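Worked example 2:
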Amino acid sequence: MEAASNELPDAAAVNDRATSLACQCAAARTAARQNIEKAQAVQKERYDLKHKKAEFQVGDKVLRYNRRRNTRMGDKLHG
């Protein structure tokens, strides 16, 4: 009785199982790619709602921010 449980599976059955797993893996990758694309589209839509591109015309006055000046060390006595 124990000899029957130690027998190797049929080569055709192993091949069928491998083919089945390969198809399932490909389908899972396709579904994951579609879910990622859908999620990214929603994220882009939400981002675009809150962030508008600045539109300037030639001659507009704008405030220019100099981050380097505000974050550097030193200039204790500089006003």
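Residues 11-50 form the longest helix (40 residues). The two ends are 94 Å apart (CA to CA).
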